[in-house]
Specification:
By secondary structure, this protein is of the alpha+beta class. The protein is built from three helices and five strands, in the order H-E-E-E-H-E-E-H. The chain is globular and about 45 Å long. It starts with a helix and ends with a helix. 25% of the residues are buried.
């Protein structure tokens, strides 16, 4: 990952964490590594463990940031989430995956932050394709 991309990504995660806290999420961990990759933010909200994927852009030329969550990316997030749940002994917990979409201006200030709750589900399409 290039330096500019690192800076944009980190700035987006910081803005997303603040936004989530203001909206009732309790941040549990950030940048959690698993054998399958990384979870951007792990939080709790009400009875749920929430895995949050943060997508950040500084230009709208490619559309909103959340469009970067492809099927392949969703598959990896689900695998990361299941690995994390197993690691902490909470496989029977209520959980979901949210996406936070962050648009930054050239000064890395948030112009727009969108939260998509339950954006990725372990629906039958992943199971049918043998992905999980």
């Amino acid at each position: 990952m290039g330096r500019e991309k690192d800076v944009v990504g980190k700035a987006g995660e910081i803005k997303a964490a603040g936004f989530l806290k203001r909206n009732g999420y309790k941040i549990v961990a950030v940048n959690v590594r698993t054998p399958f990759g990384e979870l951007d933010i792990v939080a709790r909200k009400e009875d749920f463990i929430v895995f949050i994927e943060v997508k950040t852009r500084t230009s709208s030329s490619l559309g909103p940031p959340y469009l970067a969550v492809t099927g392949k990316k969703a598959y990896h997030i689900i695998r990361n989430a299941l690995c994390y749940l197993k690691r902490i002994g909470s496989v029977d917990s209520f959980w979901r995956i949210d996406v936070v979409s962050v648009m930054l201006n050239s000064s890395y200030e948030a112009e727009k932050i969108e939260l998509i709750e339950n954006a990725i589900t372990a629906d039958d399409n992943y199971f049918r394709k043998g992905m999980l």
